[in-house]
Amino acid sequence: xxxxxxxxxxxxxxxxxxxxxxxxxxxxxxxxxxxxxxxxxxxxxxxxxxxxxxxxxxxxxxxxxxxxxxxxxxxxxxxxxxxxxxxxxxxxxxxxxxxxxxxxxxxxxxxxxxxxxxxxxxxxxxxxxxxxxxxxxxxxxxxxxxxxxxxxxxxxxxxxxxxxxxxxxxxxxxxxxxxxxxxxxxxxxxxxxxxxxxxxxxxxxxxxxxxxxxxxxxxxxxxxxxxxxxxxxxxxxxxxxxxxxxxxxxxxxxxxxxxxxxxxxxxxxxxxxxxxxxxxxxxxxxxxxxxxxxxxxxxxxxxxxxxxxxxxxxxxxxxxxxxxxxxxxxxxxxxxxxxxxxxxxxxxxxxxxxxxxxxxxxxxxxxxxxxxxxxxxxxxxxxxxxxxxxxxxxxxxxxxxxxxxxxxxxxxxxxxxxxxxxxxxxxxxxxxxxxxxxxxxxxxxxxxxxxxxxxxxxxxxxxxxxxxxxxxxxxxxxxxxxxxxxxxxxxxxxxxxxxxxxxxxxxxxxxxxxxxxxxxxxxxxxxxxxxxxxxxxx
Length: 538
What we know:
By secondary structure, the protein is of the alpha/beta class. It folds into 3 domains: about 5-15 and about 50-170 and about 255-295, no CATH class; about 305-505, 3-Layer(aba) Sandwich (Rossmann fold), CATH 3.40.50; about 510-538, no CATH class. The chain is built from 18 helices and 12 strands. It has helices at about 25-30, 35, 50-65, 70-95, 100-125, 135-150, 150-170, 205-210, 210-215, 235-295, 320-325, 355-370, 400-420, 435-455, 465, 470-480, 510-520, 525-535, and strands at about 175-180, 185-195, 305, 315-320, 335-340, 345-350, 380, 390, 425-430, 455-460, 485-495, 495-505. The chain has a 6-stranded mixed beta sheet with strand order 8-9-10-6-11-12, with helices on both faces. Helix 4 (about 70-95) packs antiparallel against helix 10 (about 235-295), helix 5 (about 100-125) crosses helix 7 and helix 5 runs parallel beside helix 10. The longest helix is centred in the middle third of the chain and has 63 residues, at about 235-295. It is elongated. The N and C termini lie far apart (about 95 Å). Residues about 395-400 have low confidence and may be disordered.
């Protein structure tokens, strides 16, 4: 395989047979993945895939980096050089027409220098690991980079480039001859010489009186002034055009002899590096996330990837990686299994009992898997989702026109318009803007629709009344050949949240009693305080 066809994220010859998963930037933000990865030059949503083949290819890449962390360091050193190449091309595209030939030539030389710098970084990093890496991506990259650096053509290029750049770098000034008309206006100009020393400022009297200046051809008889100072825009353009035209004549032979070499290398090789730069940045940032979690003492696993049609999701000791990196407290882990007994869960529990955390954790883990990364759990079996749809609390301005409930229902309709049986839907405190009775009614209708469709869904809510509707939802779903719905409960013991979830019917009154007791608001606690106050007043 040629380097021009190489990819860090896709196997050789791979062609996407299915559409990319529907995971928007909004979903990425709501799952806080944008903050976690902090990509600067690409979008995380560009890298999601549903292909088990692609996921396994990437899993091997991250496995190599886990074993040899220096790979990530090598790749990170390449990124700023590639950014310089991109900036150089941007500047070259904006070069004035009159200066284009020489400037393009010099830009191309610099670009090849940057290109060879990238190749040297990659060669130095991968040469010691060529026989150790196991992933197809890194084995191919190490082999091709080694073949390139050892080729006679590449060595010849470096030799010529060294000589040519030295010639260019040695140019410090030029001597220009200018013919004037009768009114002392410049008419013609030509280059007399190219010099390896810069000119110095001077005065006429110095040139006359000082012996050491008399024989110094590089000292002017007047002070040096900035080129084109005080000229209008048209005058500046004319001066620059004349100057670069003269330089073009001097470099013409070099430009023509090197043009084919420069164009071939710039187009065929530099383009390959620029093409995979987003992949390199993603792999580097993802590796840093993995390393940070491991440093925190958190476990990650390589999930078993199953066909999308099986719709399997099984996580054991799942946790939220964003929370794990944000706090120093002990992280509570949970099991979460989607199977024939339940493909849709209603998660209830006390406020701040971990419902939103586990809802995000599920989306984050599936996203990690679909990026080809290890997932935040002890073990996992995953069927990729063709879309991840989130309905989280938002401060949308659309509430001005529709009202909060109308805005929530509009967003739910958008999800229904796009969701399929192979999607994952995450609802967090959806329909919290209306009364419990109305919210429970609408939520039951929504969940029945998802159940009939057959998608996987986690609905975290304070609506304990909704749990009592599970049997009715399942009855209606079964009639249409849909999937089952079940209840999950976020635990609380003696007024203390333990953030553990389990399959059970919620008891809203027990949550209320525990919370009331925690804040001294139970009936017994209140009456005791009243008696105490009366005793103090008597």
